[in-house]
Design a protein that fits this description.
Strand content: 25-35%
Strand order of the largest sheet: 1-4-5-6-7-10-11-12
CATH class: Alpha Beta
CATH superfamily: Aldolase class I
Number of strands: 12
Shape: globular
Oligomer: single chain
Number of domains: 1
Number of helices: 9
Structural class: alpha/beta
Largest sheet: 8 strands, parallel, barrel
CATH architecture: Alpha-Beta Barrel
Length: 237
């Protein structure tokens, strides 16, 4: 089971957002995302998820300069946030990032979804589902889709997605503190051939042990939301 630290980045800084929208208040954690990733690498991480909060407002404000720095620094990564079209995907792939995480467009717009999947290719595509319980949310966590978890997994399989990350949200629509194991167990039953990852905030050893148990049943990895917060805290105590 691979552990993937996730860095939320706005205005070139690592932040921890307090709400689901692009303009939600956010606590600043580090003014250099590459330095933050290196600190996580020193703690044992080998692959990173980068969430472009600016791009949630539209591709015109995508932080392409930041994403270019990661391949140049030898830091393998996948980029998430506001990828809605083949042009969005190609602009990021040209920078040398390893994978792209794509969410709402895959679940809501069939012609665009197929075009985006074709532009990225299966080896570099990570599908994403935002969940509150087993309810699927879309449009950057602003819309209840009415789609059930099982239907979303079937749709992604039909599109040819090889892997999916389930981002488990609390009632405040930011990543849960601790995994929703009931929903995760249901997803493991329904995943078919999909590689399944889960994203949430880990509270400690008990959460990791519960997730490690599920690795034996097909859980491929965990995206660690807010991971840099713990590393930064240890560095200051």
């Amino acid at each position: 089971m691979i552990l993937i630290p996730s860095l939320e980045i706005a205005g070139g800084q690592v932040v921890l957002r307090a709400g689901p929208s692009a303009d939600a208040p956010a606590a600043r954690l580090c003014d250099d995302p590459v330095r933050a990733a290196r600190a996580l690498r020193d703690a044992g991480a080998g692959f990173f998820q980068l969430v472009d909060l600016d791009a949630l407002a539209g591709p015109g404000v995508r932080q392409l300069g930041e994403w270019r720095r990661f391949p140049e620094a030898g830091l393998p990564c996948q980029v998430a946030g506001g990828i809605r079209s083949p042009d969005d995907a190609r602009a990021l792939l040209e920078l040398g990032v390893d994978r792209l995480v794509v969410g709402s467009v895959l679940l809501t717009d069939d012609p665009a979804a197929r075009a985006v999947v074709e532009a990225i290719g299966p080896q570099r595509l990570v599908a994403s589902i935002d969940l509150v319980g087993q309810e699927v949310w879309t449009d950057d966590r602003s819309t209840r889709s009415g789609m059930a978890l099982g239907a979303a997994l079937v749709r992604l399989t039909d599109l040819g997605a090889p892997r999916v990350v389930l981002t488990q949200l609390g009632d405040d629509l930011v990543e849960r503190e601790g995994p929703d194991l009931e929903t995760l167990d249901r997803a493991l039953e329904l995943r078919g051939d999909l590689e399944l990852f889960v994203a949430c905030r880990i509270r400690g050893k008990v959460d990791l042990e519960a997730l490690a148990e599920r690795a034996e049943r097909g859980l491929s990895g965990v995206v660690l939301a807010g991971a840099y917060r713990a590393v930064a805290h240890r560095a200051t105590v």
